[in-house]
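We keep the chain:
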Amino acid sequence: MRKSTFILPVVFIAIVGVLSSIFIVDERERALVLRFGRVVDVKEDPGLAFKLPIFDEVVRYDDRILSIDVQPLEVTPLDDRRLVVDAFARYRIADLNQFRQAVGVGGIPVAEDRLDRILRAETREVLGSVSSKDILSSDRAALMLRIRNSAIAEARALGVSVIDVRLKATDLPQANLEATFNRMKAEREREATDERARGKEAAQRIRAQADRTVVELVSDANREAEIIRGEADAERNSIFAEAYGADPEFFEFYRSLTAYENALRGGNSSMVLSPDSEFFNYLKSPTGQAGR
């Protein structure tokens, strides 16, 4: 009885000791074994691993590719046109020992804070050496590669490998954006004013051409009408002359009737004539002939 009473605590302590000395490394992570704060082992392969109970501490780090959003920053390219750049980077912890020495107990938050400063500095330096047109053109991919290559060397001191750097957006600052918008608006308004002025000029030119065409058509029509009227009058006079030559007495009678018709209309209320006036020769003649 005394023997079993002694063995049970020993077995329990042994089981607890064995269990506390075993830990599992997930395939998505790597681990450091620390003894009194000093690295004694690096566990990079997934599976079971061992440590000394009580004395050793296990610190786990993500072994996957991580992403960091770089805080937006203003850069001034060679053409002094300020731009607000928004970027992000992908990185991975390459050297656990170096990483632990560089960031201490701060871990990934501290590493990302320092990596953010590195990326901001490299982005400002690279983009400041080119013009804004290069940043906004197809050369942008080459610029991102330059930023990544420059950041790799700086990040190596953190035990971090920078895999990729991407520029998400390159915009004008708000003040510059409003000024650019106002300038574009003024330019469009000027173009619209020019277009309206050219339209009015074209309308006046077309209107003047139409007025000139009307005057020319009316003038030609009047000229042709006068020619036709003159030719008709000449033909009428020729007919009258021919008729007069054929029968002068009939022609004189016809002219007298025409004169009577024009003189004795209803609108003429009175006529003052001498009784022996030749105007009524055909009316006074019993035979319808002019008096001799």
